[in-house]
Amino acid sequence: MDKKKAGIFFLFDQDSKLIKIFFIYYYLTFSSELISSFNFESSATGRCARNERMFKHQRRRRSRKESGGIMAEPESQKVIKLVPEFLLKKRKAYQAIKATQAKLALLEKRKVARGKPVNFKRLEDFLKDGHRKHRDETRIRRAEHRPPPPLPPAGNKLAFAVRIREIKGVSPKVRKVVQMMRLRKIFSGAFVKINKASVAMMKVVEPYVAWGFPNLKSVRELILKRGQTRVGRRRVPLTDNALIEQHMGKHGIICLEDLIHEIFSVGRSFQPANNFLLPFRLSVPRHAARDKAGLLKDLGAPGFRGADINAIVRLLN
Predict the structure, then answer these.
(1) For the whole model, what pTM was predicted?
(2) Is the pLDDT of residue 131 over 80?
(3) DSSP state of 68
(4) What are the distances in angstroms from CA 76 to CA 62, 69, 71, 73, 79?
(5) Contact 309, 160 (CB under 8 A)
(6) Dmax over Cα atoms in the chain, in whole Å?
(7) Is it the case that residue 175 has pLDDT exceeding 80?
């Protein structure tokens, strides 16, 4: 190539900051291969511009598709496997059972959280509760002006009290004494040490509680069959001497026989031993549900029963 007939100029592109070299030649003929070899930068620039336009077009199309301008192409339909009819029926029945169980569990949870539902109370029930409360208050007020009841013989130091009547609508004083004796539920029993205060308490709850003097056989059967204590928040039956020794060893009670002897003899550790025992939950005969009058006749009237309390213990134990 003739150098005199060619000139080289360097031009700067301010936009892309690239140096472009232009060969200006005059009166020269170049072959096509030489021209293509020197035109590589212009072809790359065109390719970049074309790619940029394509990218803008794809981005614009994607934005229109997301905005709802262009409907999405329908996906290929999936092949749905056929399920036998008996399996569908079985699945439907199972789902119905699970839904019923979930509903019952939710109702039970609400019942436990909020307590029992409020029952409708008739006007006659309010009148009956009011009369019972008035009778209790009148009876207690009259008993305060009477001489105190005589104490039982010195040989009888232990009493067993069992609640055989409902206490709905009673006087607050009666309810408080019942709670102090730990007879919160009907047909529950507890041992009581005989003294002046306990006899006065028995007089307050006399229309609802039967009490008397249990023998050694009744005390043994109650503790062996119904004896329970509380460990944490659980009721635990007294079937292990290690448990008794762990809680009552400091009072000299290490086994079940020691506990029975301490309760019956009303020794020095009677109060801790009695507190160690939970109130006895006595059972009701099966015929009580259909023959309530017969059950009350078998139990007899509430109040002081003396040695007849052993018959009640055998009936309810």
Answers:
(1) 0.58
(2) yes
(3) T
(4) 20, 21, 15, 9, 9
(5) yes
(6) 150
(7) yes
